[in-house]
Amino acid sequence: QVQLVESGGGLVRPGGSLTLSCEASGFLFRQYNMAWYRRIPGQKREWIGDIASSGIPTNFHDSVNGRFMITRDNANNMLYLQMNNLQPEDTAVYYCNARNPQGSVLWTWGRGAQVTVSS
Fold this sequence. Notes:
Elements: E1 3-7, E2 10-12, E3 18-25, E4 34-39, E5 45-51, E6 58-60, E7 68-73, E8 78-83, E9 92-98, E10 113-117
Parallel strand pairs: 2-10
Antiparallel strand pairs: 1-3, 3-8, 4-5, 4-9, 5-6, 7-8, 9-10
C-alpha cells in the first residue's frame, strides 16, 4: 500500500527557512515525478512545485519560485522541500505526492505537515 508521510513542519518567523521531508513507500519511487502541494487556510489545495524522477529538472509556481527548492533521494525514497524567506502567506499544510505530466496526483494524500509563519 502506498504511504506518503510528511514531516518537518513547525513555526517559523517571517524571513526564516524550513525544510520538509516526505517519506514514500509502496511504489517504485525512483520512477515517478514527485510534487509538493499546499493548502492555505480557506483555499483549495494547490501545486507549488515538482521534480522529475531523476531529480532534474524542477518546476515551481510563481508564488514560491526563487524561494523554494525541491530535492530527492531515490536510494532512500525521500523527497524534500527547502523553503527560504518564508512569509505569513506561506502558512499552510504541505503535502507531497506523485504527479503525472497532466498535473494529476497518483496516490492517496498523506496527512501533510503544518507550516506556520508568524512573528
